[in-house]
Design goal:
This protein has helices at residues 3-7, 10-15, 21-34, 36-40, 45-48, 59-77, 86-89, 97-110, 127-133, 156-165, 170-173, 177-180, 195-206, and strands at residues 79-80, 137-138, 236-245, 248-252, 259-262, 283-292, 297-301. It has 304 residues and is of the alpha/beta class. Among the domains are: 1-56, no CATH class; 228-301, Beta Barrel (OB fold (Dihydrolipoamide Acetyltransferase, E2P)), CATH 2.40.50. A five-stranded mixed beta barrel has the order 3-4-5-7-6.
């Protein structure tokens, strides 16, 4: 979704000035496998969305809501300061588009960032911007292991004191659930950081730099169905819900055409809202009830 929009965008032209749009689109899709967030932020969120109603709402409000959601995603995952693109950096709290450009230019001229404090050397990046952004940027293999966590530099002293009280080093404390469980959070409350902040720090120490995505469920389409002509009425097939409408949902069966499960075929009994029965990207089992090859339409049922 959105790969063709990206391929013709200014960002794509800057990244791949000598490539054709089809190649840019293919590269974008491929790069989503290694780092989906870093790639998808280059595309207007509206172009990634699915559903029939997003064009009916106030477009300014839609853009603000979608941008806000992307920003929350970027900040909750965090970004690698040495590999993040200008597009990804611009979504980090405290860093706008111009500042993101300054960071990328500084990185190109001076090499990789060795620690978070180095951010302060970026032209026009002041103390306030640093305070807002610091916890959301990560440095991989840093001198100070806390630079690869969501712990803010202002709280480094607290973590070091925790380690010292346990008579171990900071690296030994990180990711050691046994040691972390011995810490009494109330002992480390300060004027600036209360009990909830301390608990957040301990939670982060247990899993620094952890990928927040859940493990993906292994899913396979029916290997015998490769095109619409392979479908037979009565077949039971695995599928993925790829669009939800007011009158039902569309299910991807692994072929070019998606099949429609009408709202009356979602389950036994009356259904007032499709969203109460299915969710986007849900794995479902469906039965083929009708195939119109000429019009390329497939009717499905979830009542098996």
């Amino acid at each position: 979704a959105g790969a063709s929009v990206y391929s013709a965008s200014k960002i794509a032209r800057e990244e791949f000035p000598t490539y054709d749009v089809t190649v840019r689109g293919a590269v974008s899709i491929g790069r989503r496998l290694s780092d989906p967030l870093a790639e998808l932020v280059k595309i207007d969120p509206k172009s990634i969305g699915v559903g029939q109603y997003q064009h009916d709402v106030d477009q300014t409000q839609l853009k603000n809501e979608l941008d806000s959601t992307v920003m929350k995603c970027v900040n909750s995952v965090g970004i690698n300061l040495n590999t993040a693109s200008k597009s990804l950096l611009s979504y980090v709290s405290g860093i706008g588009e111009k500042m993101a450009e300054n960071i990328v230019n500084y990185r190109s001229e001076n090499g990789a960032f060795e620690d978070r404090k180095q951010l302060k050397k970026v032209p026009r990046l002041g103390e306030k911007a640093f305070q807002q952004a610091a916890a959301f940027v990560r440095i991989s293999n840093p001198k100070n292991p806390l630079d690869n966590s969501a712990v803010h530099p202002e709280a480094y002293g607290i973590v070091e004191k925790m380690a010292k009280d346990l008579k171990i080093t900071t690296p030994e404390l990180i990711a050691s659930k046994e040691k972390i469980s011995q810490i009494n959070p109330e002992k480390y409350i300060t004027e600036d950081i209360g009990i909830l902040g301390i608990k957040d720090i301990l939670k982060e120490l247990e899993k620094p730099g952890l990928d927040p995505r859940k493990a993906a469920k292994v899913f396979e389409f029916d290997p015998n169905v490769k095109k619409i002509t392979d479908l037979k009425i009565g077949m039971i097939l695995p599928g993925i819900v790829n669009n939800i409408t007011a009158f039902g949902c569309f299910v991807d069966l692994g072929i070019k055409e998606s099949g429609l499960v009408h709202i009356s075929q979602l389950k036994d009994g009356f259904v007032s809202d499709v969203n109460e029965v299915v969710k986007l990207h849900q794995h479902v089992q469906v039965k083929v009830t009708d195939v119109d090859e000429a019009r390329k339409r497939i009717q499905l049922s979830m009542i098996l």
